[in-house]
Amino acid sequence: MIIGIGIDLCDASRIRDMPGRERFLTRFFTPEERAYFDGRGVACDDSVAACYAAKEAFLKALGTGISEA
User: What pLDDT does 69 receive?
Assistant: First the structure.
């Protein structure tokens, strides 16, 4: 059964230049995910953007999305 379809994009440069980057990472990612990103080196921001977009797309498909509250 398909509940919905979700799609999302996230620009890696927005992640890289984000003023509250550490707060964002702590809020939306587990310690294990953050450790994975840290191990990605120069591809860190690309990985963060891809994972965030995937989470948002999944939640959109469920009909919720990520809350900004």
Answer: 47
